[in-house]
Amino acid sequence: MNKLEIKLNSLQETEEFGIRLGKLLKSGDILCLNGDLGAGKTTMTKSIGIGLDVEEYITSPTFALINQYRGRIPVYHFDVYRLENVDELYDLGFDEYFFGNGVCIIEWAEKINKMIPKEKIVINIQKGNNENERILHIDGYGKSYEDIIKELK
C-alpha cells in the first residue's frame, strides 16, 4: 500500500487534480471516493471524467446507482449512498463492471468495501478550513496503483 496526503486550496485545484488523475487511469482501474455529504466526491468524479475524455455532463447516479459514460475508455460511475442492501448490486451485475474494461469510480465506497477488489485507489475527501479547501487522503493498493500515487506526488 502506498499513501499520499494532498491539500487542495480551491475548487480549481480540485478540478486540476481530478483531471490529472483521470489522465493516469487505464482500463480496469477502480477508484473509491469516500467523504461526508458535500465533501466533493461528485465534483472529483466530474474532473476525473474530463481527464478520461468524457464529453457528457457527469451527474451523480444517486437513484440509479450507476451511470455509464464514454471516454477514451468506458467510465462506470457508482453512487451507493442510497444502497439498501448488497443484492441491488448483484442485480446490476456489478462484477462485470469491477472486472471489466472500463474505469470504475465508486462514491461512498466504504459501504461496499467487501465487494470491491483489493487492488484499487481509495481517496478519502475531507473538508478543510474554508468552503473550497479539501484534504485528500489517498491509498493505493496494488503495483499499478503505487505507480499512479508516485505520479501524483
Task: Please provide a written account of the structure.
- With 153 residues, this protein is of the alpha/beta class.
- The protein has one domain (27-135): P-loop containing nucleotide triphosphate hydrolases (Rossmann fold), CATH 3.40.50.300.
- It is built from 5 helices and 7 strands.
- Strands 1-7-6-2-5-4-3 form a 7-stranded mixed beta sheet.
- A hairpin with a 6-residue loop joins strand 6 (120-127) and strand 7 (134-141).
- Helix 1 (11-24) crosses helix 2.
- The longest helix has 14 residues, at 11-24.
- The two termini are 15 Å apart.
SS field, number of helical segments = 5
Binned strand content: 25-35%
What gyration radius follows from the Cα positions, in whole Å? 14 Å
The CATH architecture assignment turns out to be 3-Layer(aba) Sandwich
Number of strands: 7
Q: How far do the termini sit from each other?
A: 15 Å
- Tell me the count of domains: 1
- Broad CATH class: Alpha Beta
**Could you spell the SSE succession in H and E letters?**
EHEHEEHHEEEH
Largest sheet: 7 strands, mixed
Gross geometry = globular
Helix content: 25-40%
Find the CATH superfamily: P-loop containing nucleotide triphosphate hydrolases
For the largest sheet, list the strands in their spatial order. Answer: 1-7-6-2-5-4-3
GO molecular function: ATP binding; metal ion binding
Family: Belongs to the TsaE family.
InterPro entries: P-loop_NTPase, T6A_TsaE
Protein name: tRNA threonylcarbamoyladenosine biosynthesis protein TsaE
